[in-house]
Amino acid sequence: MGELLNNGILMCAMTAWLVAQVIKTLVYWRVNRRFNARILFSNGGMPSAHTAFVVALTIMVAFREGLGSTAFALAFGFAVVVIVDAVGVRYETGRQGEVINKIIQQVLVEGRPLTDDTLKELIGHTPTEAFFGGVIGILLPLFFR
Predict the structure, then answer these.
(1) pTM value?
(2) Which CA distances in Å does 40 have to 19, 21, 79, 83, 98?
C-alpha cells in the first residue's frame, strides 16, 4: 500500500480528479444556490474530472519517462480515448436522457406515470467542460514535478 501511495504519477492524477470534483461541486453550489454533496462523486459537469485525471497522468508520465517513451504513448492514447468518449458518446447519451425525461414529464401531466425515476442527464461533457478539466490536468503536474 505504501508503494501505491508513493506513486507520484498516480497521486497527481488522483489529486487532479479531486480538485476538479471539488470545483464542480462549488460551481454547482454557486449556480444553483444550494449545496449538493452528491455532485462531489458524480460524472459530468464543469470541469471534467475524467479529463483532469488523464491529462495529469499523461503529463506526469511525460515528465518522468519522456515524450519518446512507450509509457507516454500509452498514456496519451488513453487520454485521447477518455476525452473523446466524455465529449462524444457520453455527452450524447446525456442529451438523450434530457429528451426522454421531457417525454416522461409530458406523460405524467397527461395521465398515469410510467415511472417515478428519471434518467440521469448529466453523463458526458461539453468541449468546454473537457477543456477546463484538461487545464487542471496541465496545472497539477507542475506542482507535483
Answers:
(1) 0.72
(2) 10, 5, 22, 20, 21
